[in-house]
Design brief:
The structure holds three protein chains of three kinds. By secondary structure, chain B is an alpha/beta fold. Chain B has four helices and five strands. Chain B has a five-stranded parallel β-sheet with strand order 4-3-2-1-5. Chain C has a five-stranded parallel β-sheet, with helices on both faces. The chains are: A alpha/beta, B alpha/beta, C alpha/beta.
């Protein structure tokens, strides 16, 4: 657990983790977590985004939702960097279990192993999951 | 860190997902349908019994009671707490992660 | 301790709103402060005053309203999630207000603990 840090101008900066463990489209969680991250990016907070378990499917390339008339928000992940969200982590084991390789993904996210995921989660001040 | 698990291990994988990532010494609270994981005599009980070596595992008594189980139905080493204890745990464990 | 609470699911279908309510009432009884309960995803449906459960059941929406009135708890419904599900000012139960996700981030920053209740 890290202590929240206070900047010179008195602003508190906390380590936030947004946890994505669910696949897209079957439920709305992936989309609404993404919407939350886009807002969170406007705050001077230390934003981290983790993709593990079925959450790694959110980043799959070539999602084609036109026929279902559902929103394809997978392209929005590419915009995260422009919003200043750069600490994006994918769990290696979750990808391997699901037959995904980095080439299958819409963004070049950092891959960490399960042990590193444990350390990442354990170092957070605020964990928002859905 | 306090991890919260609210789903039966017979239906969902959230408890396993949590057990794979929780740091040793973390607390894990089983509540809502998560309480079924705390029961002695199930096929999942050995997993929990083993996990008590690495984690502080708790089960929420009102959720057990609502489902027809008394505190003595739980695995040795799993501690039964009430809502006051739940509140205390979130403070004691410094941060909280829900496995949904 | 100051708490921020997040409710991810609507009333009745999941236990999340009940669990959050129990947690909040017990935290308050122990002398803690609940800065905000933020309703997101289907959680926004907890604010629908048109909810009319049977008389022998708890009234989840009314119970939140009462809690807000008795303890000055800020019940905030996410505007974007609410619009998507028809939760607008016209159907808002007493004690709830509609605001942006920024309100959630603010309360997480100000609170010592954030606890999420979902499915």
């Amino acid at each position: 657990m890290s202590d929240a840090t206070e900047t010179a101008d008195g602003l508190v900066t906390k380590r936030f983790l947004y946890v994505n463990r669910k696949a897209p489209h079957g439920t709305v969680y992936a989309l609404e977590v993404l919407e939350m991250i886009l807002v969170a990016a406007m705050y001077e907070q230390d934003v981290h985004v983790a993709f593990l378990d079925d959450g790694v499917f959110q980043l799959r390339k070539n999602q084609a939702t036109e026929e279902l008339e559902m929103k394809d928000f997978s392209k929005t992940y590419r915009a995260l960097e422009d919003y200043g969200v750069e600490k994006i982590f994918l769990e290696k084991e979750s990808m391997e279990e699901r037959g995904l390789t980095p080439d299958d993904l819409v963004i070049p996210a950092a891959t960490i192993d399960r042990k590193q995921m444990t350390e990442l989660m354990d170092s957070m001040d605020v964990v928002l999951s859905a | 860190m306090l991890h919260l698990v609210n789903k039966s291990p017979f239906e969902r994988t959230t408890l396993e997902a949590c057990l794979r990532r929780a740091a040793p010494g973390s607390g894990i609270l089983l509540y809502e349908d998560g309480v079924y994981a705390a029961l002695a005599g199930t096929s999942f009980a050995p997993t929990i019994a083993n996990a008590t070596n690495a984690f502080d595992i708790f089960v929420l008594a009102p959720d057990l009671a609502a489902r027809g189980y008394a505190p003595d139905a739980v695995i040795d080493g799993v501690r039964t707490i009430d809502y006051d204890g739940f509140v205390d745990l979130t403070i004691e464990k410094q941060s909280v992660q829900s496995w949904l | 301790m100051k708490f921020a609470i997040v409710v991810n699911e609507g009333p009745y279908n999941h236990q999340a709103s009940d669990s959050a309510y129990q947690f909040v009432t017990h935290a308050l009884a122990k002398g803690h402060e609940v800065l905000r309960v933020f309703f997101y995803y289907d959680g926004v449906l907890n604010a629908n005053k048109l909810s009319a459960p049977q008389a022998d059941d708890r009234n989840i929406v009314k119970r939140w309203s009462q809690l807000a009135q008795d303890n000055q708890i800020d019940l905030t419904v996410c505007v974007a999630a609410g619009l998507r599900r028809g939760i607008i000012d016209d159907v808002l139960a007493p004690g709830f207000r509609i605001a942006g996700i920024g309100q959630l981030i603010d309360s997480c920053i100000d609170a010592g603990r954030t606890v999420v209740f979902g499915d």
